[in-house]
Amino acid sequence: MLGAVYSLVALGLTLIYGILHIPNFAHGHKYMWGAFTSLFLVVNFHTNYWVSLFIAMVVLGLAGVGVERLVYRPLRNAPHVNSFIAAIGLLLFLESLSLIFWGADFRRFPSLYDKPIHLLGVAITLQRLLVIVGAALFIILLQVFIKRTWLGATIEAVAQNPEGAQLVGISIDRVSSLTFGIGTALAAGAATLIAPIFLVYPTMGAMPNLKAFVVIIIGGMGSIPGAVLGGFMLGLIEALGGGYISTDYKDLFAFGALVTFLTLRPTGLFGKGVR
Amino acid sequence: MNRMVRKWLILMILFIAVMIPLVVTNKYYMNILIMSGIWSIVALSLNLILGYTGQVNLAHGAFFGIGAYASALMMLKLNMSFWFALPLAAAIAGFFGFLIGLPALRTRGSYFAIGTLCFNIIVTLIVDRWEGLTEGARGLMGIPGPSPIPLPWGGELTFKTMAAQYYIVLGFLLLTIFVLRRIIRSLVGRTFQAIRGNEELAEAVGIHAMRTKILSFTISCFFAGVGGVLYASYIGFLSPELTDYHVSFDSLIYVMIGGVGTMVGPIIGTLLFVTLPETLHIAAEFRLLLYGLILMVMIIYLPRGIVGWMKGLMGRKRKQEAP
Amino acid sequence: MTALLTVQGMTRFFGGLAAVMDLSFDVQAGEILSLIGPNGAGKTTVFNLVTGTLLPTRGKVFFKDQEITGSRPYETTPLGIARTFQTTSLFYDETVMDNLIVSYRCRTRMGFWDALVQTSRSREDERRCRRKAEEILEFIGLRERASELALNIPQESQKRLALGLALVTEPKLLLLDEPAGGLTEEENIGMMALIQKVRTRGITILLIEHKMKIVMNISDRIVVLNYGQKIADGSPQEVGSNAAVIEAYLGAGYAET
């Protein structure tokens, strides 16, 4: 299940990187805001869980578009480093904003799906099952969108050849906004699905952020199947490492894996080769 | 700015810097100055790999921490004197920089940034969990300050007062500036900047990119370690937070906003960010909020930082004045 | 007498496409050899394979008697092979002079300690860099632009500077990739003269160029590529009347005329 979680978060990230070649380092914090938004709605307005999910995705999607416009678009022609640094600024900004608004407390997300059910001899809460199903659903929907719809095609066109795409009349601005919007919405969706299982707090985005990056580096930046495979691999590595070696150093394995991959195969499993 | 004016300006600043402890007696302000000095060393060292060699290193906090912890452990457990521990601990930090640089510098740009960040987290995790060595989250306490130096004519030089601590930090800051400046102005420094400017072309003119980057990284980590040692012996207490990536982010901010790729920029950035929040008494969350906002705005509109921007202005003025 | 550069059976695949296929040719010391062919024929790939930017799938490269297949650029440059790039590549943030100075680095030996302590070796190296840079600055005719940023100089000067950077490394073999790209008629003549001036220094030149006027005028020999394979190799006259070459450029219909 952990793998599914990681894949989901990584999905939005790989989309943005693959299309716009911007490592959206603040992804984890948008994820965090997604969770908080739905929490806010559910707690204060008692909206239905699924409705909140939807609204959170829309709100974050729009916010993503806004961020792209204000922060990343002006940096489009600058060296990549600058976008990365801007993302760090954004990250700090989002984290502190959240701290100011919501305080540093850990909050519980009220869940309707807490009761465990028995599936194939394993006890698992419905919520966790929902995460896996939700992840699968999002992944499939995204693939379909990219490969089958016209909008998806324009996104791929820009990814492969921005100048050529412009020549045939595709607006890079629109595509950027769209990609960012979708990527951020996916983060919000992932967050809302996962929130009831873990706690919600302002720094919850930091770890998923890094792990998402680990996932896409393992799987290859810009590749959706890569994100999926990478996510599951990471989940597996963590579970095995944590189970057999040491739970204390559990997080270490993720990063150890990253360092190993960076050294041996920097382009990931599905990325494009170099020399 | 012509040579003579610049020389006099530097002498004046040095004079003021040396005179400060005689004028300022308020402990609070002295503390701020000393901390600024320590963080300036850290920022300047980051500037070498970031500003001059163009690699976004996010593990700087880890090397600062390694230097700090190494020296603290040597002074506490091996009863080593500060004066021996400092170069040794810095060398250890530099050595780790070399080890990490070997795999890490094979990657570029964002991959390098993420890789170093992950390394930073690994270090923090290890320092936190390896209680046998580092006392983990409890932290190390009672780290001694610099031991007295016996003077040739009898008696000794002690370093117990704040003024003394200030002079030590100032001394090392000046040393750092001197060394870095020598390197940057030399052919070696030019090589660093060639890598930053156009790595492919640098290789085409026969420059060994990997070796150059590793050299820059190692030196950078060495001086981060120096900063760490000074911190450890001044504050006397260490905890794993000091190796945290927030330290890396902070140094990044000081350098970027002060002026990446200039000698003076990181110092100004550090002074700004260490003194201002203290004097304005802003709450911690708002401080980070502001940092994030400023960083974003700066990187979009003033990517060369304050000093870089000013240099650009002066350059343009000179062009207009020339015939 | 062995050739200066020998390329043997060079093959490079990109996925399923052979950019270069079983290519063999050599370059004799002191000559100007041009590599021509329609767009996409694999010319720049050949340069990349020789300097080590790309690894060949098969085949070997020899420089004088030494095999250099697969060596990286920073290894081949000190041996005496320098190149320019099809899209002008410079250190744009530096001045013209600084560009030239740093390019001499591979001929200096100073290291970190030398810089720190300012040994006599470091001072000597810095002096030599400056002297070489001055010399080449004069040679390429950019003296007036010495303190301008590479970013700001006009395109023709940029092309000259790129050539200058390669010259600073004291090459025996110079690979020029479209040195006249984007230049006007008048500028072409200037570039041609510069290339000939380089030859008088005893430097062998391997040239990729699309402008036939330049190619026909200055080449001693021409190698023609099409779809990654050699289809002709000879003097300008021989190649100009070669049916296969005409066909490659203009299509089958013209070969008979």
Fold topology:
The complex is a heterotrimer of chains A (275), B (323) and C (257).
Chain A: H1 2-20, H2 27-45, H3 49-72, H4 80-102, E1 116-119, E2 122-125, H5 126-148, H6 150-160, H7 162-167, H8 172-194, H9 206-219, H10 224-245, H11 250-264
Antiparallel strand pairs in A: 1-2
Helix pairs in contact in A: 1-5, 1-8, 1-9, 1-10, 2-3, 2-4, 2-8, 2-9, 3-8, 5-6, 5-8, 6-8, 9-10, 9-11, 10-11
Chain B: H1 3-23, H2 27-52, H3 60-77, H4 82-104, H5 109-129, H6 131-134, E1 149-150, E2 156-157, H7 162-185, H8 187-197, H9 199-204, H10 209-235, H11 245-259, H12 264-280, H13 284-301, H14 305-321
Antiparallel strand pairs in B: 1-2
Helix pairs in contact in B: 1-7, 2-7, 2-10, 2-11, 2-12, 3-4, 3-5, 3-10, 4-10, 7-8, 7-10, 8-10, 11-12, 11-14, 12-14
Chain C: E1 5-14, E2 17-27, E3 32-36, H1 43-51, E4 58-63, E5 66-67, H2 73-79, E6 81-83, H3 96-102, H4 112-117, H5 120-139, H6 155-168, E7 173-177, H7 185-200, E8 204-208, H8 212-218, E9 221-226, E10 229-234, H9 236-240, H10 243-250
Parallel strand pairs in C: 3-8, 3-9, 6-7, 7-8
Antiparallel strand pairs in C: 1-2, 1-4, 4-5, 9-10
Description of the molecule:
The complex is a heterotrimer of chains A (275), B (323) and C (257). Chain A has helices at residues 2-20, 27-45, 49-72, 80-102, 126-148, 150-160, 162-167, 172-194, 206-219, 224-245, 250-264, and strands at residues 116-119, 122-125. Chain A has 275 residues and is mainly α. Chain A has one domain. Chain A has a two-stranded antiparallel ribbon. In chain A, β1 (116-119) and β2 form a beta hairpin. Chain A is globular, with a radius of gyration of 18 Å. The two termini of chain A are 37 Å apart. Chain B is built from 14 helices and two strands. A two-stranded antiparallel ribbon of chain B has the order 1-2. Chain B has a domain at 27-244. In chain B, α2 packs antiparallel against α10 (209-235) and α3 (60-77) runs parallel beside α5. With 257 residues, chain C is of the alpha/beta class. Chain C has one domain (5-254): Rossmann fold. Chain C has ten helices and ten strands. The mean pLDDT of chain C is 88. The interface between B and C is medium-sized, with 25 and 39 residues.
Defining traits:
heterotrimer, B: 323 residues, mainly alpha, C: 257 residues, Rossmann fold, 6-stranded mixed beta sheet, 4-stranded antiparallel beta sheet, 39% helix, 23% strand
